[in-house]
Predict the 3D structure of the following.
Amino acid sequence: MWSTQFPCAVNIAEPGFGGALSNSDFLRRYAKRLLRAARSERSSEALPVLRRIVAMQVTPEISVAELFPLRASLQLKHVLHTLARELAFPSWETCSRQVDARPSSLLDRYRFELGMFRDFQTNWFPDMGAAQGWQREHGGYLIAYGGQAVAILAH
C-alpha cells in the first residue's frame, strides 16, 4: 500500500521554497515567480498565468487575448489576488491575514507545480471523490489540483 502521508523526501526543485517558509511567505515567493512568467515574451509561459488571472476575475473586464499585449503592466498584487481566490479567499488582504493559520497542505497544488513531488509516481483523477475512492483501496497522498486530483505515490 502507498503512504497516505505527506512524502518526507520532497524535492526542493526551486531555490527559495524550502519547508521553513510560512504559508504567506511561500505564496509571495510563488507569486513573484508567476509574475515573471506572466510577463515573459514566450506565450507558452505567459498564457497559463494570464488564464488563471482572468479565470479568478482579477481583471474581469479584460479577456486573455486583451491581457496578453498588456502583460508587462501586470503587478504583483494581481497575482497575489489570483492566488488568494484560487485558495477560496475573497482577496489577498484576507488571505495574508488568515493563511498562516491553515495547514501547509493547502499549498500542495503549488508545490506540485514547482516540481517538489517529481521524484514520486503520480496518478491523476477527474475529481477528488474518485481519488478518495482509489485512495481507500491503494493509498497515496492526495492533492487537489483545480477540479482534478492527483495521488502522490510514495512507499
